[in-house]
Design goal:
Keywords: Amino-acid biosynthesis, Methionine biosynthesis, NADP, Oxidoreductase, Sodium, Threonine biosynthesis. This is Homoserine dehydrogenase. One of its GO terms (molecular function) is NADP binding. The chain is an alpha/beta fold. It has 3 domains: 124 residues, NAD(P)-binding Rossmann-like Domain (Rossmann fold); 145 residues, Dihydrodipicolinate Reductase, domain 2, CATH 3.30.360.10; 66 residues, no CATH class. The strands form 2 sheets. Strands 7, 8, 9, 10, 11, 12, 13, 14, 15, 16 and 17 form an 11-stranded mixed β-sheet that branches. A 6-stranded parallel β-sheet has the order 3-2-1-4-5-6, with helices on both faces. A hairpin with a 2-residue loop joins strand 14 and strand 15. It is elongated. The structure holds NADP nicotinamide-adenine-dinucleotide phosphate (NAP).
Length: 409
């Protein structure tokens, strides 16, 4: 039986999960591919750590040793940082290897170049693990929704942020206490900036944008806000309205432009995101034929992420059918969505008196439910720097309020 030889770059949480899964699911690989999958080499950084790997595996700190192997079919990358990762993967493609990556920061920056290079070299790129860990959202978009016109994707794409927001609500804890808990559980790094300031979700949103729309918005035009402004008071006010805070990435195409944002929003019970708790991730895909699909599951972790990568291993090793090829579609084709001119409901904190907006309810001291157009709130925010305001995805049930009468403040 012929053999597929694989190298794994990195033997941390993800790399070790991939190695163990290739061992534990050998029979499934053989059944699906008709070939044996063998890990020929593993790249690590620190020679002195003990690693539980078979003697036949080349364990090395030198990537060139891996490239020099007599047979190498697939390079699976699970290291960190943009470099040297990007350079390693370019070399692997030039050598004629398929590549698979979990590294979203690197792929958001260099994915297009790697995909272009892979086409020239007639190899494939698997990157399922870069977005939403174990949830097969990328292959759903690349392979299963090729004719549907996707108009909008929304996702809870960062498990750490979602965990912190869930803890704050359930345990009535502060942001700082919940962040500490996330760090103790191993969900957040010692430096949590990437997660709590929305960079991680932003990179994932850009990867999704390229798949669905064939392009990305200008990165500097994307509204990116983390969860650090969410206080216990805001969470309690949202609960009174039967709403929950979720950190949501949103990507749509409107009038030919890609509009994207990554920020905390409020959702009600009717929205699937309401029930996505802890480190779970979820993605809503809105498209014209099928309607809305929601995919939900583990967004990180050793085996969920390994699952994404080893399914990619099968994908790159098999003959690959044509993928989704995003065509330019007009706004009329997809129906128009909310514009900045339209009035919608917002939860607002720090709004000065005489702001000229419609007050629906003072939910708690200084925290208001108002109705306003986004463009008017943006103007107010420029004039009153202390304001924070959060939109509500979908409908709000006004019957939960004490009074229905509205006034202008
Ligand atoms: N953890 C998750 O749940 C998850 C989910 C989705 C995607 N990802 C992505 O997957 C990648 C790996 O994450 P992880 O959690 O597995 O990280 P990790 O536990 O910190 O492991 C990183 C591994 O990469 C190796 N490494 C780092 N720099 C290297 C270099 N320059 N040359 C060779 N090896 C190097 C380290 O070697 P040593 O062991 O020698 O230190 C370690 O084995 C990241 O890009 C991450 O964003 C992670």
């Amino acid at each position: 039986m012929s053999i597929i030889k694989v190298a794994i770059l990195g033997f941390g949480t993800v790399g070790e999960g991939v190695y163990r899964t290739i061992q534990s699911h050998a029979a499934e690989f053989t059944a699906v591919l008709g070939k044996k999958v063998e890990v020929a080499a593993i790249l690590i950084k620190n020679k002195h750590k003990n690693r539980d790997v078979g003697e036949e595996v080349l364990l090395t700190t030198d990537f060139d040793e891996i490239l020099g192997l007599p047979q190498l079919d697939v390079v699976i990358e699970a290291i960190v940082d943009k470099e040297p990762t990007f350079t390693f993967l370019k070399k692997a493609i030039a050598r004629g290897c398929h590549i698979i990556t979990a590294n979203k920061e690197m792929f958001a920056h260099h994915g297009k170049e790697l995909l272009d290079l892979s086409k020239k070299n007639n190899v494939s790129v698997g990157y399922e693990a870069t977005v939403a860990g174990g949830i097969p959202v990328i292959q759903t978009l690349r392979q299963l929704l090729k004719i549907n016109r996707v108009s909008l994707i929304q996702g809870i794409l960062n498990g750490t942020s979602n965990f912190i927001l869930s803890e704050m609500r359930e345990k009535k804890q502060s942001f700082a206490e919940s962040l500490c808990q996330a760090q103790e559980n191993g969900y957040a790094e010692a430096d949590p900036t990437n997660d709590i300031e929305g960079f991680d979700a932003f990179y994932k949103a850009m990867i999704l944008s390229r798949i669905v729309f064939g392009e990305e918005p200008e990165w500097r035009d994307v509204e990116r806000q983390g969860i650090t402004s969410i206080t216990s008071e805001l969470i309690a006010a949202a609960e009174k309205l039967e709403l929950r805070f979720k950190h949501v990435a949103s990507i749509s195409r409107e009038d030919g432009y890609i509009i994207a944002s990554v920020k905390p929003v409020l959702v009600g019970n009717e929205n699937p995101f309401y029930h996505v708790e802890g480190v779970e991730n979820a993605v809503n895909v809105h498209s014209d034929i099928v309607g809305r699909i929601t995919l939900q599951g583990p967004g990180a972790g050793m085996f969920p992420t390994a699952s994404a990568m080893i399914e990619d291993l099968v994908y790159v090793c098999q003959s690959r059918p044509a993928e989704r090829n995003a065509v330019k579609i007009t706004a009329e084709c997809i129906g128009s969505s909310k514009t900045v001119e339209q009035k919608e409901y917002w939860l607002v904190q720090g709004l000065a008196e005489s702001s000229g907006v419609t007050l629906v309810e003072e939910v708690s001291e200084g925290i208001l439910l108002i109705e306003a157009a986004k463009k008017d709130l943006d103007v107010l925010a420029a004039q009153q720097p202390g304001i924070c305001y959060f939109s509500i995805l979908g409908e709000i049930d006004l019957s939960v309020l004490n009074k229905a009468a509205v006034t202008v403040i």
